[in-house]
Amino acid sequence: MIHDNRSSNRSGNRPFQDVLQARMSRRNVLARGAALSATGFLAALAGDRFLDRGAATATAKGSGTAIAQAPGSSLISFTPVPAANSVGPVPTISSNYQFDVLIPWGTSLQPGGPEYNGDPNTRPTAAQQLQQIGIGHDGMWLFPIGEGNDRGVLAINHEFGNNVHVLGKEAPESLEDVRLSQHAHGVSVVEIQKLNGKWQRVNSSKNRRIHVNTPVTFGGPVAGHPLLQTPAGNSPKGTVNNCANGYTPWGTYLTCEENFNGYFGATGSWTPTEAQERYGFSAEGSGYDWHKFDPRFDLSNSSYTKEENRFGWVVEIDPMNASQTPVKRTALGRCKHENAEVVVGQGGRAVVYMGDDERFDYIYKFVSESNWRSMQARGISPLDRGKLYVAKFNDNGTGEWIELTINNSALAARFADQAEVLTYARIAADTVGATPMDRPEWIAAAPNGDIYCTLTNNTRREEPDAANPQAPNPFGHIIKWRDSNNHVGTTFTWDIFVLAVDTHDTDKSAFGSPDGLWSDPDGRLFIETDGTQPEINGVTLNDQMLVSDTNTGEIRRIFSGVTGCEVTGITVTPDRRTMFVNLQHPGDGDPSLTNFPAPQGSGKIPRDATVVITRKDGGIVGS
Ligand code: FEO
Ligand code: CA
Ligand code: CA
Ligand code: CA
After folding, report:
1. How far is the CA of 146 from the centre of ligand 4 (A)?
2. Distance in Å, CA 516 to ligand 3 centroid
């Protein structure tokens, strides 16, 4: 989270004229939004829809169906958390709901393994951390076992942890310290079950930790390319800054590498290349200081030139096979990937929507070469062959997906081959005139085919445009679009779903910095926040989760986190009676602010944890 804030886009892409005019017209459209979205966007059915828990299409995952909504009825009936209660060191939840805590940082991966309970006087050793749940819980997905409502495999990202939190000191002083930090990052795959009414992790051969020293491999056009080879000849290892996620119709988990640049630094003389600058590399890094003890992350070490090109990808993990080697899918491009929302589009193609979270960066879409099932039958990953596009938002509510291909003369003039285009996707997108956005975070596909994207904030925007109409934009907004040709076309229509600032006069819905996002199959949009929240009646809100009925535009706060945390990550059981969300960096690791999930006043170091949410009456979460 804290490292998202630099802008390295100096391309000057500002394709809009008449921006104020456009802004006013977009906001007028928004005011009429409810009727518009219901009539204009519900017309087309969204094809082969596997994505959401309970989606009607039969797949390996969803088992239920969308619940029919009576005309004029609301999808949300719960009592909202008042703004006045969205504060303090312990979470608060709607009076219709209850929550429990699962797998905080330091929980042993298998029962009986080493545990860390937040004792401020100790930390795990690097070896212990390898056998424990990591820190910085972020995107995750539950893969059902059996009918899945009380048993499944949870794949969960560990995005980041600051040094004081993880190590108990400002900076690593040894390779052992660096290894602890490295092992705290990455991904956990852990089987969970509901036993005696309580979800817990259980002993399982599926449980594993993936981190920055885990062997990985590459798929797609950049695999085997010199861009991924170092002079040292070291084999590729690891994933890092695992932010949000996706999952595929064939049952795998996607973890997205976001601010990977911050783990690199330089101990000696180093002059950044244009590409290194565009991806935000610096001599000092983001404070992790891995490069001071692990030469792989030292940009000035000539043995490890190009090591940094091995990060910034979407990585595919088989949650059911602990011996599988994670695969980095290079056809999806290299950027600061937030999440990867997969839908099945026209002709059975796998379509992946992706945001690049930095100020003035872009929204991307990958479309597989052909039907994902036929590709798999031929032994080809649907994520290894296809087209990568970047979004251009026109100010009249239309947009274009511009293909990032070496067959484009502007890109051919700049890059040697498609592998370079993909490795330097940001520069390719600069070249073709993509629209710089206000920090694209999560993208979520709704059951009617609408695609939503959180644009979390951008305090440095000076010129508004139609798609980013606030300048500056301290509280962010959510945009939505509808692709032509059932997700595989190259044009779309778009609209602003909500400007966060427009919610600030409503106690039940005030929010800022939207980040995590998920649509359930009934059309409820779950919005999670990370960062600046509004002050309502003298209270600056904690980060929170809200639910929107996308048919009416109504938004209500369902859950509020603790001081200093963000709320992120979201998944549900197939029956949607249980929801899992994460509290990341509670109290920013400071026990004087919160001891969550230990009892307040216990003095324990706050620990990132998953929160299990259920409706007291056993109903669908969000209703
Ligand atoms: Fe990982 Fe953009 O937050
Ligand atoms: Ca985050
Ligand atoms: Ca995020
Ligand atoms: Ca964020």
Report:
1. 34
2. 6
Q: Which atom of ligand 1 is the closest one to the Cα of 357?
A: 2
Quick one: DSSP state of residue 309?
Answer: G
Measured N-to-C along each axis, helices 33-42 and 19-31 cross at an angle, to the nearest 10 degrees, of: 80
| Mean pLDDT within 290-297 | 98
Question: CA nearest 571: which of 497, 622, 617, 608?
Answer: 622
List ligand 1's pocket residues with C-beta within 6 A: 1, 4, 159, 243, 258, 338, 357, 441
pLDDT digits (tens, 9 = 90+) for 242-290: 999 999 999 999 999 999 999 999 999 999 999 999 999 999 999 999 9
pLDDT band of residue 73 (cuts 50, 70, 90) is confident
Place of tokens 């249980």: 578
Mean per-residue pLDDT, 52-72: 46
Residue pair 178/290 in contact by the 8 Å Cβ criterion? yes
Please give all residues whose CB falls under 5 A of ion ligand 3, grouped by chain where several chains appear: 515
* Distance of CA 517 from the midpoint of ligand 3 (Å): 9
Q: Which atom of ligand 1 is nearest to the CA of 244?
A: 1
Residue in the block written with tokens 């899945």: 148
The 10s digit of each residue's pLDDT in 172-211 is 999 999 999 999 999 999 999 999 999 999 999 999 999 9
User: Model pTM?
Assistant: 0.93
Distance CA 527, CA 504 (A): 15
- Alpha-carbon gap, residue 178 to 296, rounded angstroms: 12
From the CA of 138, the nearest ligand is 2
Ligand 2 centroid from CA 39, angstroms:
35
Contact 227, 419 (CB under 8 A): yes
The domain segmentation of the chain, as residue ranges, is 16-615
Q: What is the DSSP letter of 473?
A: B
d(CA 244, CA 530): 13
Please name the residue whose Cα sits nearest to atom 3 of ligand 1. Answer: 1
Residue spans of beta strands (DSSP E) within 520-565: 524-529, 535-536, 539-540, 544-549, 554-560
